[in-house]
Amino acid sequence: MRGMNFNFLCGEPPRPNGRNVGIIGAGPSGLAAAGLLSCQGYQVEVYDKLPKPGGLMLFGIPGHRIPKERIETGTRRMAKRYGVIYHTRTKVCCSAPLHEEEGDHFCADMRGLADLLEKHEAIIICSGSWKSRRLGIPGESLPGVYAGIQFLFPIRAVQYTAPNVKVPDVVGKRVMVIGAGHSAVDVAHSALSLGAAEVCMVYRRSRKEAPCGTYEIQRLEDMGVRWRELTTPMRFLGQDTVEGVEVSEKVVDEQGAMVERTTVIPAEVVVTAIGEIATPPFAKELGLENVRRGEVRWLNMTAIENVFVAGDALSGPSKIGKAVYSGLRAARSLANWLDLKAQNRQHEFTGDLMARSPEPTGSHGAV
Amino acid sequence: MSETKKLSVNYAACIGCETCEYVCRFANETPRIHMARTRSGLMVPLYCHHCEDPHCVKVCKQGAIVVDAQGVVLLNTMLCRGCDSRQCIQACPYAAMFETDKGVMLAKCDLCAARRRAGLEPACAEMCPTGAILYAVPETLKKAETPESLAAVERVLAHIRGK
Ligand SMILES: Cc1cc2nc3c(=O)[nH]c(=O)nc-3n(C[C@H](O)[C@H](O)[C@H](O)COP(=O)(O)OP(=O)(O)OC[C@H]3O[C@@H](n4cnc5c(N)ncnc54)[C@H](O)[C@@H]3O)c2cc1C
């Protein structure tokens, strides 16, 4: 299988231009940025805390939806032909303490942003959006309650040996998935294929409002997933591990009126797949809120000169396409910035190259 | 059968991630492949199939849509008047003529003509994360069809007709 061609903007590798750029995060946004810059002759080095480049395309989204070869062949080609260097298992430090986020298990090396700035002329932060949103209801910390990526990540990561990476044990168990976005669908699907006895999907709005669409729901139902809509989790029940969830559901009574009632749905594994939030290193120092609003000196550049940001780290959870586009735009902006700075002409062009519109935002997760 | 390579999206493998539309936007400013959300909530890219006998060419009174020697259906932006009747938009069975609010009223795929001149292939196919977009001669595209891909195309076409 041919790989994703991250170097789609050029043919033969160009002559080196003598400049060196660092990219933090090897998801779709970082890889797209690496592709553009390596096509312009930059020496590109990509840092990622995981053992392989690919980001959520490799470690979040199940393999039956994105073939792993398509990513691996693509990233390998970029290294071989265009000289891109991957520093895997390397976390660039850190707004969250180590071992707080999924995937930290793999880190063998930590680098500070300052080190990187010394080594590279410019940096793009493409670290994605990995911290799971929580429901904030009682019992959420009971063993057996997982967040979306927490559940999905080990399934694909387990093939790379690291301590503490275990596939969630769902065999013969009743699994409840909370949410109706893409990640919720992926969780339900994975739970079934891992041998769960029953899978039910709980969503607080109606089927028609589900972000994943009715077709996906139908498909899951055909596979045996039970869909329960207009159902809101109130608390997780259980002593040492989760045993069920108390929910409030809207149902039609004998008189045909919509009433709310409280019931308990038994489950030994519960996954809350309600979206993620971005945790880029140094969010405050970088002034990310301003970048989001488009109030910047230079498109995609943060408050720290020569440090750019792109992808879900900037926009919050979105989609691969948006992340790719954001990475490409940030890379182009970085190249323009370095070129003009070298000629001491950066002030002439600001008006034209500044962000005119903030980054598009979106979410695939939903409560 | 034509020897010109064309695009084909395997909707059974597509996950609706929008990468094709966004790289097209980056490569061509105005994207010529567009995501649509079907009534059942599937995100699917709509695109020009570069038909053998294109309806859009026949209905355009300005003669702005032409088929080149290789069988690629091209929009001559100098001739397009963005006429009120929007015949070409109506005529396309794949809903692949796109209105824009830019200077040119219409955008359509030219199989990345500028890139092809530089020896490159259409950007969408190069960057699709799933490999669902093929760029190949019709014979190869035909061979790649599966019962699943054909059924998926039918679902998309049913959505287009239903509009
Ligand atoms: C379960 C799930 C299903 C999804 N399904 C779809 C779908 O069907 N279609 C779709 O379009 N989108 C889907 N998405 C969303 C999509 O995966 C993301 O929008 C996209 O991957 C974002 O790209 P990115 O490059 O910004 O970040 P990511 O893909 O998240 O990549 C970020 C990379 O940065 C690394 N990193 C983070 N912090 C550091 C650090 N401090 N130091 C070093 N490395 C670091 C991470 O290890 C990771 O490799 C899904 C997401 C999830 C969670």
Please tell me about this protein's structure.
The complex is a heterodimer of chains A (367) and B (163). Chain A is built from twelve helices and 17 strands. The longest helix of chain A has 23 residues, at 320-342. Chain A has helices at 28-39, 56-59, 68-82, 113-119, 148-157, 182-193, 214-222, 283-286, 288-293, 312-315, 320-342, 346-353, and strands spanning 20-24, 43-47, 85-87, 90-92, 109-111, 122-125, 131-132, 145-147, 174-178, 198-202, 226-228, 231-237, 244-252, 258-266, 269-272, 276-277, 307-309. In chain A, strands 3-2-1-6-17 form a five-stranded parallel β-sheet, with helices on both faces. Chain A has a five-stranded parallel β-sheet with strand order 8-15-9-10-11. In chain A, strands 12-13-14 form a three-stranded antiparallel β-sheet, with no helix packed on it. Chain A has two domains: 20-131 and 276-348, FAD/NAD(P)-binding domain (3-Layer(bba) Sandwich); 134-272, FAD/NAD(P)-binding domain (3-Layer(bba) Sandwich), CATH 3.50.50.60. The two termini of chain A are 37 Å apart. Chain A has 367 residues and is of the alpha/beta class. Chain B is α+β, with helices and mostly antiparallel strands. Chain B folds into two domains: 1-47 and 119-163, Alpha-Beta Plaits, CATH 3.30.70.20; 49-108, Alpha-Beta Plaits (2-Layer Sandwich), CATH 3.30.70. Chain B is 32% helix and 16% strand. In chain B, strands 1-8 form a two-stranded antiparallel sheet. Chain B has a two-stranded antiparallel ribbon with strand order 2-3. A two-stranded antiparallel ribbon of chain B has the order 4-5. In chain B, a hairpin with a 5-residue loop joins β4 and β5. The longest helix of chain B has 16 residues, at 147-162. Chain B is globular. Chain B starts with 5 loop residues before the first strand and ends with a helix. The mean pLDDT of chain B is 93. Classes of the chains: A alpha/beta (367), B alpha+beta (163). The A-B interface holds A 1-2, 4-6, 8-11, 28, 32, 57, 61, 65-67, 70-71, 210-216, 218, 319-322, 324-325, 328-329 and B 15, 17-23, 25-27, 37-43, 118-121, 123, 126-131. Bound molecules: flavin-adenine dinucleotide. Residues 24-30, 47-50, 55-57, 60-61, 91-92, 103, 126-128, 148-149, 152, 182-183, 186, 281, 311-313, 317-321, 323, 364 of chain A line the site of flavin-adenine dinucleotide.
